[in-house]
What we know:
alpha/beta; Rossmann fold; eight-stranded parallel beta sheet
Amino acid sequence: MKIIIIGxxxxxxxxxxxxxxxxxxxxxxxxxxxxVNEIGEVGVDGETISGSGLVTKELTSGCICCSLRISMExxxxxxxxxxxxxxxxxxxxGIAFPMxxxxxxxxxxxxxxSFAPVVSMVDASRINMEISQVPTFIANQIKESEIVCINKxxxxxxxxxxxxxxxxxxxxxxxxxxxxxxxxxxxxxRMFIDLLAGESEAQHTGANLDSIEMSGVGSYSAEYSLRAGxxxxxxxxxxxxxxxxxxxxxxxxxxxxxxxxVKMTLKFREGLIKANLTSAHGEPFVxxxxxxGDDEQHLKLLSAVTLVPRDKxxxxxxxxxxxVMGKEGISFExxxxxxxxxxxL
Length: 345
């Protein structure tokens, strides 16, 4: 069983890359499973990736390389026994160190495992902001990787791409650096897929680091059941854009240069829509992922941003939801998670 670990800071485009990578490998005849690690109690990416027909296992409430080592081992063993994939792709939370994850898996009792070169993705349009916010953390993610992918090159000019490449190579001269747009699946992205057929040769050295503490990231996640009629794609798209704009404005009052991500999926009777925001200088992005739905209507939300305390982040999210959904006439109830009481709004 080949294990592919693709890390990268929050909002670097890991989920888009994984969806396209997974579909491509399936087309080549591989049996794929994806393990999604989220920082919060509510998983968003698993629902997003599952829409592409891939088998996923969500690990929430922590970091694979820290508090979820036992859960990771159990998940891998379960996948082997129940699904028997030949490739497992692991998407760590954006505040994990991929090489430490590889080391922990090597110590687990999982047979016949090999590793692709360890990958970290960076967002060409945001890496300078990220380094200014959490320099030690970003540098360590890059230094621990065998392949560094400079993603979202379609959003910047070639001078910026060249500058980002120089920064990456200064931090990790031994890494293979490749530039692409995972969203567009350009030629370099397909070349990246071929590189994953190789074998990892790097080993983690030095003490294990607490990635959550080093990241300086506050996080908050929640799931809400929705009660509303006449929910259609155009209405939801407009509402999610307004919601992210409201969240962005309020977060800028706390940290004008924040980076990270606020992402959500809204499932309704006509399908599934994803929305995300990745920085104080970015714009909301909304896309329709699936045009088949059911009677269940819910909103899953995960936010993780730099230098914003969790309590303030939670307040921003809840206040913004109340304001925007109130204007839309949509009632919602926060689903109870372990240790939480339901809140009706």
